[in-house]
Amino acid sequence: MTVQDERVARARNGDRDAFRRLVEGETRPLYAVAARITRDAALAEDAVQEALFNAWRHLGDFDGRANFKTWLHRITVNAALEQLRKRGGREQWTAPAGNAGEDEEDFLAGQADELPGPEQLAGGSQIGRQVQLQLERMTHLERSAFVLRHHEGQSLEEICGVLAINVSACKQAIFRAVRKLRGALEPLR
User: Fold this and answer.
1) Which CATH number fits domain 1-90: 3.90.1580.10, 1.10.1740.10, 2.40.420.20, 1.10.1200.10?
2) What are the residue boundaries of the structural domains of the chain, listed by start?
3) CA distance 127 to 135
4) Average pLDDT over every residue of 38-65
5) How far apart are CA 102 and CA 141, in angstroms?
């Protein structure tokens, strides 16, 4: 029995400390995926809190077929999507203090090995704005599939499980998201 299996078993029996240890290293990645999906810092925080609460409440439903972290990410994605549904689909990105534009920087990271000059900085800023604008224009499904694939590095099968869609729908959502981004960024080349 692994340490994770032991903690899951203890948490199922009501051991809050075991549950805390299961999730303690996951809050940042969970927040990151929720923030990328909701595009709103407050909604992302609410989604993570709701996900952790739901994970604790439904720990008995965890059957161990998937990795605990994968299961927790699925709950978080669903909670983030639920936050968007509750809000009625209105989207406006509000970054937490000190993290403005971090997602776009991650998306564009590694493009140059040298320090950028003023022209490059202006262009990068313009690209970042376009990426953010296109992410906001995507449907919830497109953005979620794109984020899970390209930010979280999940397989198509994992994404299908998280979003409860088939492989064809998953591929189409990712394709549409990438096409929208490419179309928006093409004029900036």
Assistant:
1) 1.10.1740.10
2) 1-90, 100-189
3) 12
4) 90
5) 22
Model confidence pLDDT, tens digit, residues 99-131: 433 443 343 333 334 434 444 444 456 677 777
Between CA 81 and CA 144 the distance in angstroms is: 8
Q: Among the listed ranges 48-52, 62-66, 123-127, 135-139, which one has the minimum average pLDDT value?
A: 123-127
Q: Which amino acid is at 30?
A: L
- How far is the C-alpha of 81 from the C-alpha of 105, rounded, in Å? 23
Q: What is the pLDDT of residue 188?
A: 66
Structure-block tokens of residue 122: 């202006």
Nearest to 23 by CA among 44, 1, 54: 54
> Which class for 73: exposed (0-12), middle (13-18), buried (19 or more C-beta within 10 A)?
buried
